[in-house]
Amino acid sequence: MTEEPARPGEIAQTLDRGLRLLEILAEADPDQGLSPTEAAARLGVHRSIAARLLATLLRRGFVRRTREGRYLLGMGLFTLARQVSQNLMVVAGPLLTEIAERLDATAVMHVADGDGAVTLASVEPKRASFHIGLRTGSRHPLGTAATGIAILAGRPAEADEREKVTQGRKQGYVVTTGELVPNFTGIAAPIVVNGWCDASVGVVIPKERKHDEKVLANEVIALAGKIAIGLS
Predict the structure, then answer these.
(1) Who contacts 125 (Cβ-Cβ below 8 Å, separation ≥6)?
(2) What value, to the nearest 5°, has the Cα angle with vertex 114 and ends 17 and 77?
(3) Which of 6, 67, 80, 91 could form a disulfide with 10 if both were Cys (CB 3.0 to 4.6 A apart)?
């Protein structure tokens, strides 16, 4: 049975504020962080509320406090993020390797991070004479390249979205050439879990290589579906 999204009145306000505060700290200068007063102003609450939220997050290791009393993101978030990445790779790793070898193409997986797409995995075929590898952790805007656009295509439509996002949502996959790596074509599909998309998977091939777009697209769509099932 699918659960319905919580209505505004059902949201836990304190938890929502705490999570929003983490987002605000992520947007702040990573070297300077924020003082409780600055955090309160950005969150739109009284300083005492921000101070209590920061104290709670500090206790859980999600933020850290400098000698000057300023707050930055803590290692507790890294631990959570690492576990999420490990879970994704347990499910996706073998599938990426299989499709890379079978299609003789670099298989890639990206995850959303704010307004960017971050490379979680890049698997190159062992016997390929010419291929491209993407550095794990590399980042590009969500609105560019097949993998980034595919994530947006897996989400609800927005009024000002790029035409390729709209097209990708209709056909279930996205194709771009030269947007991430010159002279290479990417074909990607969104990984939708519980009605939301925060990741995509795709293949990258030289643009001059002869290929059947629909055949590769169907392979990528099927791969995205398998990963989504494994994560559900």
Answers:
(1) 100, 101, 103, 104, 105, 106, 131
(2) 60
(3) 6
pTM recorded for the entire structure:
0.69
CA 126 – CA 137 distance, rounded (Å): 22
Distance of CA 3 to the CA centre of its chain: 23
Please report, for the domain that includes residue 22, its CATH number: 1.10.10.10
226, 90 contact by CB (below 8 A): no
Is residue 96 domain-resident? yes
Q: Where are the alpha helices (DSSP H) in 44-74?
A: 47-59
- Give CA–CA dist 107/155, Å, rounded: 22
Instruction: Select from 116, 97, 119 the least CA-distant residue to 106.
Output: 97
Do 109 and 155 share a domain, yes or no?
A: yes
Instruction: Give yes or no for a contact between 150 and 196, defined as CB atoms under 8 angstroms apart.
Output: no
Angstrom distance (rounded) from CA 147 to CA 142: 8
Q: Is residue 143 part of a domain?
A: yes
- Residue 1 falls inside a structural domain: no
Tens-digit pLDDT profile for residues 92-134? 889 999 999 999 999 999 988 878 898 888 999 887 666 676 7
Q: Give the CATH number of the domain where residue 129 resides.
A: 3.30.450.40
Residue 2 lies in a domain: no
What does the alpha-carbon distance between residue 232 and residue 227 come to, in Å, rounded to a whole number? 9
pLDDT digits (tens, 9 = 90+) for 115-125: 889 888 899 98
